[in-house]
Amino acid sequence: MKLLLDTHIWIWSLARPKQLSQRVHRELNDQNNELWLSPVSTWEALLLNSKGRIHLQDNVRDWIARATMHLREAPLTHEIVVVAQELPLPHQDPADRFLAATADVLGLTLVTADHRLLGLGTIATLANR
Questions:
Q1: Under DSSP, is residue 35 helix (H, G, I), strand (E, B) or coil?
Q2: Mean of the pLDDT values across residues 99-120?
Q3: What is the pTM of this model?
Q4: Which of 36, 41, 87, 116 has fewest C-beta within 10 Å?
């Protein structure tokens, strides 16, 4: 499976793995699965750090390099931006829109605990339940 990690899933996998369901934990550790991360999640993590909601250890650049070294980087393309704007989401959170559109355009399964991103029609999701 090709899995796109929602920002909180990525952060939890690094700092609070007990927040992950057994199924998500198993899929993230399955060597047959590809793990993808959008630069939008890096942006979100930096925002959360600047607001004091999370604490990125050491130098932020070094932390990001270590935290992403085993993940594939999902591109943020013009097509993804257009699809993000067209998504019929019940909220306007730009990060959620970009992540859902990235999963849609690249054919990835979005791993999330956000109920607002589950059941989005053609976008494959894996719920952290």
A1: strand
A2: 94
A3: 0.95
A4: 116
